[in-house]
Write a structure and sequence with these properties.
The chain has one helix at residues 260-274; strands at residues 24-27, 37-41, 49-55, 72-77, 80-86, 94-96, 106-112, 118-124, 133-142, 148-159, 167-180, 183-190, 218-220, 228-236, 247-258, 285-288, 294-297, 300-309. The chain is mainly beta and 314 residues long. The protein folds into two domains: 24-126 and 259-299, Immunoglobulins (Immunoglobulin-like), CATH 2.60.40; 133-255, no CATH class. Strands 11, 12, 13, 15 and 18 form a five-stranded antiparallel β-sheet that branches. The protein has a four-stranded mixed β-sheet with strand order 6-3-2-17. Strands 5-4-7-8 form a four-stranded antiparallel β-sheet, with no helix packed on it. It is globular and about 65 Å long.
Length: 314
């Protein structure tokens, strides 16, 4: 599968974006024949459980994947079988509302194609690391063109657990809700913020052609293991302005805790997509953790904090 890259988008409260036990790697161009089972699932605490099953295609194919028509999916939660179903061939993802995902749950997903192929993926849902404190201040700050301007500086304090490797992703979203008669209309928009805090630097590829690549807010605790780290981001001043009458604006700060599998897969996919048009000699390798096939089963948990802006006079 060349291009299938699902990013988990989780909605908590008003609205909220998202989207290795046995670490393996895979060349971007898998084979000319394809035909391997592909399994994706990103179980997220307190969110809907979803599974994708398909078959890989030749790298010469114009399709992203091949549908499966007789694939059976079995889901084991904490060692017990909790669901078994025929994957819907006419959908990209199967949604299983009956499965409740909790932090620290273990999942094993087994799939077969109804013939001779089978694949298995495993994960443990990480415990969410809360945002211990969210502080803001308005001050002059340097921007990319070398000048300075007033910015909204947000400091997110992360109480990183000691003695373990932790992997994170920071999402920001603006939600604007307006009262219209008896209805409330809300518009949600992801905020793309500068990744200039040291935690966002791509340590593993320093000195390569990939310097400056945007890994969409993913980072590890390599620089701050076991400490209360104060991560800073800069936003344009308009994000702190008061909304018009009848409107409520909220900035959501979502700290996503990821498994090592998901972290490595996500970043390797970003590198692969970034590198499609670059003259790189060595093949780009994609992480996966599915036994007997391709794809990724990786757990997530989300902690949320927010800033609410109300009209001065309403």
């Amino acid at each position: 599968m060349k291009h299938l890259f699902s990013k988990v988008v989780t909605f908590l409260a008003a609205a909220l974006f998202l989207l290795t036990a046995c670490e393996k790697d895979l060349e971007l161009e898998i084979s000319e024949r394809g035909g391997q089972l592909v399994l994706f699932s990103f179980p997220t605490a307190d969110s809907v459980f979803k599974v994708h099953v398909s078959k890989s295609v030749s790298h010469l194919s114009i399709n992203d994947f091949e549908r499966v028509y007789n694939s059976t999916v079995k889901v084991f939660q904490n060692g017990a079988l909790v669901d078994s179903f025929l994957f819907p061939y006419d959908k990209h993802w199967a949604t299983r509302d009956r499965i409740v995902v909790n932090e620290l749950d273990s999942f094993r997903i087994e799939v077969n194609d109804g013939a001779n192929l089978s694949a298995t993926g495993r994960t443990i849902i990480p415990k969410a690391v809360p945002v211990a404190r969210l502080d803001t201040v308005t001050k002059l700050a340097g921007i990319s063109d070398g000048t300075s301007q007033k910015m909204l500086i947000c400091t997110i304090t992360i109480p990183d657990p000691a003695g373990e490797d932790n992997y994170y992703q920071l999402y920001l979203m603006e939600s604007t809700c307006t009262i219209s008669g008896s209805d409330t209309i809300c518009v949600h928009q992801k905020i793309d913020f500068p990744k200039d805090d040291p935690v966002f630097y791509f340590r593993d590829q320093e000195g390569s052609l990939l310097g400056g690549i945007d890994f969409e807010g993913t980072f590890s605790d390599f620089l701050f293991d076991g400490t209360h780290y104060k991560l800073q981001i800069k936003l344009p001043l308009n994000f702190s302005s008061n909304p018009p009458p009848g409107t409520r604006r909220t900035l959501y700060f979502m700290l996503v805790s990821q498994t090592a599998d998901y972290f490595n897969y996500f970043r390797s996919r970003v590198v692969a997509e970034y590198s499609y048009d670059l003259p790189i000699i060595d093949p780009i390798r994609i992480y996966y953790n599915v036994d007997g096939g391709l794809g990724l089963v990786g757990g997530l948990s989300v902690a949320v904090d927010s800033l609410v802006f109300l009209p001065l006079h309403d």
